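SEQUENCE-TO-STRUCTURE ENTRY
===========================
What this section holds: a protein sequence and its matching fold, both as plain text.
Tokens: labelled as protein backbone structure tokens, with as many entries as the chain has residues.
Question of interest: how does this chain fold, as expressed in backbone structure tokens?
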Amino acid sequence: MEERLTHLGQHDALFSHDGIRDAQTHLASPAFFYELLRRQVALASRSELRFSAVKITFMHNEKGDSDQTVNAEDILKFSHELRALTRSEDCIGRLGINECVALIADGELAARQLISRLRSSPELSINQSLHLELSMVTSLRGETGLQLLNRLDAAPLSTH
């Protein structure tokens, strides 16, 4: 996964959060996301319902300049469009500088529908300036949150 926001300096306003929401994007902070993931795993264990996780990574679409990182404006526009495309009951955590993970409680079908919405939205690519990589996994019985995230990291990427 991308560099984690929890490891960055405390004084950078672009990556600050109040423990629940990222100050810039209003997506779930890493700490809050991991708590919701823990709860989702516990609920899935008790009810034997499956949930899914979708990883969304975005980077500049510039050819020949692979080192160019996304800037604050890109992050803000992307997160605004991402929130508009997701349901309020889905938890979207900003876990890396240019990486978000969505927890979908309704399982694989709802996650596939989200991926379809993400792929078909021209607004999400910010005028084709951002390249998206998407991957998805569905929870397995007895799996921990860390195991699920490790599988998500290893899952095949779909690009857009």
